[in-house]
Design a protein that fits this description.
Number of helices: 13
Order of helices and strands: HHHHEHEHEHEEHEHEHHHH
Strand content: 5-15%
Length: about 350
């Protein structure tokens, strides 16, 4: 007698059940339609000044856009928000990958909000040189701070910008200040000694270090070290406390090798643990002492004035570059000259000169 029973392999999966729909499809359509509606510049400005996080996020997306049509609208938003800005403390936080920047910022940010501060975190993620993509995972790392009503976290891709910051970080600071955030934390990419552009947009520059990674030897190198207003040895917990205190002593010695700062501030070295919270309040006390000194001798405001001049020149450079590459005739000639350079028919310098001369004539 023939056996009609169907035989299944051991990898056979039984048909499961579909989970119930927990999100209304109509609600999804409404949200999608709402997002397609582009708010006017005045709507964005009103939202920012009233502390609306959605308006702030959309405005930052607008200023980060490379679309030439968005430039006028973005400038209108920035210029209107500017009189409501400049009322915060801007803190740059940098350090090599693995030093614990995101964990430190979450612990530090939570401490600040517990003290009644409104904290905005502008986190910059490195962009791939191959795919141009970026993970933007800082909100995932700061899962507690992201739930805080007095905190705002905005990850941005670094793109082609060097120096550890995104192309429009400076403008994003202005918008966050206009939205009522009194403490701005800028987390940089974390690529090492080249990461110095952030120094030109912050009041206080904090350098995170760890022990056991050869970091002590970096104390004798110039560059990012001499720009730091404070060096914080992170991960000073458990068996690492003794090593952290030793590193603190070494870095303190190294700081004496650098020239004195114009502000009169003497950089300090301290230790902390972002996991246990030990040393976090002391970091903020150090920043408060810095503010008291620099505002008292007016160097705080002088530094901001110099920074404003610097960013005016940087904006001119960026706009000239954008206009050059977006020019229709240049785009045609650029393609032709690229091929000629690649084939060795013309030198890169001669090709560049031809393009520049064409641009200035047109």
């Amino acid at each position: 007698m023939k056996n009609n029973k169907i035989k299944h392999s051991t990898l056979h999966e039984k048909p499961g059940i579909f989970p119930p729909e927990i999100v209304s499809s109509n609600a999804v359509k409404q949200v999608q339609q709402f997002r397609k509606i582009q708010p006017s510049s005045q709507e964005l400005i009103d939202g920012i000044l009233s502390g609306n996080i959605s308006a702030l996020s959309r405005a930052i997306t607008l200023i980060e856009s490379t679309n030439a049509n968005h430039l006028k609208k973005a400038n209108e938003v920035i210029n209107t928000c500017l009189p409501h800005a400049n009322k915060s403390i801007r803190i740059g936080i940098t350090g090599v990958p693995g030093v614990g920047k995101s964990t430190f910022i979450e612990a530090f940010g939570k401490y600040l909000t517990s003290q009644g501060k409104k904290v905005a975190v502008l986190a910059v993620d490195p962009s791939s040189s191959i795919s141009q993509g970026s993970i933007l995972g800082d909100k995932t790392r700061m899962e507690e701070l992201v739930k805080d009503a007095n905190a705002f976290i905005r990850p941005s891709a670094s793109g082609e910008t060097l120096g550890g910051v995104a192309r429009k970080t400076r403008e994003a600071i202005t918008l966050c200040e206009a939205a009522g955030f009194d403490t701005i934390l800028i987390e940089t990419v974390g690529v090492g000694q080249s990461e110095t552009v952030v120094h030109s947009m912050v009041d206080f520059f904090l350098l995170l270090k760890i022990t056991g990674a050869g970091d002590e030897l970096q104390g004798i190198k110039r560059g990012i070290m001499e720009m730091a207003d404070a060096i914080v040895i992170n991960k000073a917990d458990g068996d690492n406390v003794k090593k952290a205190n030793l590193a603190k002593t070494e870095f303190n010695r190294a700081l004496h090798l650098f020239p004195a700062k114009k502000s009169g501030w003497t950089p300090i070295t301290t230790t902390c643990s972002a996991i246990t919270g030990d040393g976090i309040p002391e970091v903020w006390k150090t920043i408060e002492k810095f503010l008291e000194l620099t505002k008292g001798n007016n160097s705080f405001f002088e530094k901001r004035a110099v920074q404003n001049q610097y960013w005016m020149l940087e904006t001119i450079n960026e706009q000239l570059k954008t206009n050059f590459y977006n020019h229709p005739e240049i785009q045609k000639l650029l393609k032709k000259n690229k091929k000629a350079v690649q084939n060795g028919e013309i030198s890169p310098f001669a090709a560049a000169q031809i393009l520049l001369e064409k641009y200035f004539k047109t």
